[in-house]
Amino acid sequence: MANKGETLDLSSQDFIAKLKDRNHDAIELLINKYHDSLFHAALKNKLGNDQAEEVVQMTWVTFFEKIENFEARSHVRTYLFGILYNKIKEQWRSNKKYTSANDEYIIEQQFTEFGQYLSAPKDPTQWLQNKEFYKILDEELQNLPENQRLTFFLKEIEGEETQDICNILGISNTNLGVLLYRAKNTLRLRLEKRLNK
Amino acid sequence: MNKIIRLMRNIVHDFMLLILPKKLLTKLLSCEEVSKILTMEEKAKLRNHPRVRFHILICQCCTDYKYQLEIIEKSSQKLKEFHLSTQQKDLINKSKQNLISRFSKKN
After folding, report:
1. What's the CA gap between A186 and A141, in Å, rounded?
2. Gyration radius of chain A's alpha carbons
3. Cα separations (Å) of B1 from A136, B4, B11?
4. How far apart are CA A180 and CA A102, in angstroms?
5. Shortest Cα–Cα distance, A172 to chain B (Å)
6. Which residue from B31, B40, B73 is facing A116, i.e. has the nearest CB?
7. d(Cα B55, Cα A25) in Å, to the nearest integer?
8. Is A174 on the interface with B (CB under 8 A)?
9. pLDDT tens digit string along B26-36?
10. Which residue has the higher pLDDT, A13 or B45?
């Protein structure tokens, strides 16, 4: 393992080989590094503590089952989060919890036939002056329809690359663009409603 | 100063819509097109295109839209920071130890 002060590349062939060999130190390092983030991501996607923990455990089980086939084409973190988000979607299905996309119609009807705004976007300067802005943003993010929330989370919060997001969610570049467009417009309309007076 | 700039932009925008012939207006991007370019990932390379920049220069709606997006995108990155409660930490610490034991072979 790396000496203190050296940065360890968790997607290096050497490290992956140690994981495949079930090296205790490598596994301990990986789990300690990502378990909390995986748990937090599960919580952010509307799972309770116990369900989030269960989903994260299943993520690790699947990861170690599939580690033999992992070729390190993407970072190990992206691979882990890919498994996590698929487990989250399975959990949503079993919870039968789907958010209806009530704002889809509103987003499509923002413009006239000539492409001009029916209702002009409002100046957002006062958003940041609101002490509860981050709390409100977090609430509205939680209220997004599932696929929009996942896409936004992966792109804007986790900072994943476009192609990795497409691979994780099993969607095309075009679909990703549409989901991001809807997510950001839903967010901005809801933030306008709550923050612009 | 900000209010004056906003007013000037609105005046220029409305003036251009009034005086420019329709054929020329169709060559300019619409607000809907600009909103999609600014938001959709696949169009990211067009964000700095002169037509987009010119449109935003004269359109207060799209200026405000762009600013809204910037606030949402930058603020969202702060949501990556997290603090777990004591109860949550206890829950996952036990789980981590079990997982490490389960998947590793002892050295």
Report:
1. 9
2. 20
3. 29, 5, 15
4. 16
5. 10
6. B31
7. 56
8. yes
9. 677 889 999 99
10. A13
The answer to whether the CB atoms of A111 and B107 lie below 8 A apart is: no
How high is the mean pLDDT of chain B? 84
A165-182 confidence digits (pLDDT tens)? 888 888 999 999 999 999
Per the CB < 8 A criterion, the answer to whether A27 and B100 are in contact is yes
Could A137 and B76 be called an inter-chain contact, meaning their C-beta atoms sit closer than 8 Å? yes
* Residue B92: closest C-alpha in chain A: A53
Chains A and B form CB pairs within 8 A to the count of: 143
Q: Tell me if A22 and B103 make a contact (CB, 8 A cut-off).
A: yes
Look at B35 and A128 and tell me if their CB atoms are within 8 Å: no
Mutate to test the interface with B, among A70, A132, A157 (most CBs of B within 10 A): A157
Q: Give residues with Cβ within 8 angstroms of B47, minimum separation 6.
A: B37, B38
pLDDT at A108: 66
What are the backbone angles phi and psi of residue B81, rounded to the nearest 5°? -70, 140
Positive or negative: CA dihedral A136, A139, A145, A148: positive
Can you give the pLDDT at residue A99?
52
Tell me if B99 and A176 make a contact (CB, 8 A cut-off).
no
Average pLDDT rounded to a whole number, residues A72-82:
84
- In the predicted model, is pLDDT for residue B39 greater than 60? yes
